[in-house]
Amino acid sequence: MIGYYIHHHGRGHLNRAIAVCARMSQPVTALTSLDVPGPHPFAETLTLPRDDVGALVTHPTAGGALHWVPHHDDGLSARMALIARWIELTRPAAVVVDVSVEVALFVRLMGVPVVVMAVPGDRTDAPHGFLHRLADHVVAAWPRELYEPSWLYEHADKTSYVGGISRFAGREPSDPGTRTPAGTVLVLGGAGGSDVDQADVDACAAEHPDIDWRTLGLAGGPAVRDPWPDICAVDVVVTHAGQGCIADVAAAQRPAIVLAQPRPFGEQAATAGALCRHRLAVVIRHWPEVSAWPKLIAQARASDPARWAAWQTADAAQRAAHAIEDAARRCAGVGTP
Question: Are 192 and 275 contained in the same domain?
Fold first, then answer.
């Protein structure tokens, strides 16, 4: 048995876990505070209490040693106790942590091998440095050739750069249908939050009615469980720079305009920077003036979507699954340091 801790912010961590665990040969237990809708590849799910709903938050970083361990938080105590009981009963071969410094440390203190999913950005702070040192293996869900952060240099011998992990990798593109001469544009939001809402896109549509504007996942707009047909059906995708969404657009090989959202440690800014440097997408720093959109859309449409192959989404989930199970087997060896 392998455990897989899934952070509850947004849906990207869960979508990635589902894609990876569908390729695992060992049974996997999902450890998460999220609701996990079926069907899913997990042998079982362990629902953890939230650790961020306490009325009073005091000393959450333990003097800068960690990220989130507030004093006397009932949810934090309950979730760690539940994880400990699960480990005692299950004796997992390893636990994948995506993402939490505290859960990784706690699991490792119980003698369980830990595989950490790396996240882009500036991870040079003390807790992240400690996390990557204690990890038995690190999985980076992007191509090394396009983005190799300096804070992973010293861990190169235990890091697998697997490429962008998309839940849609290997799925055939949908029929694009009819498109307008001026372009069909899909603006994607995400469960992790966005600076853009439906009203922003409606303003663009009013100013540029010749462009076919569509949205998914924005506040005040429509949402679907399976956005793959919508992504494939447009000329240009406007998206945030979350790892999952970028991998999905790369898998569909759609021209893209990428607007990085503010995230801790500059996560999305780092991904957007890599895309810009390697000319995989048009990258913008903020939601532009309405008048700027025709030029941006034309620029994106003129790009070569085949360049997305460099993001290496093909078989990325399989490579991640292999790295995780290989680390578990390696750590099972008697007498290994």
Answer: yes
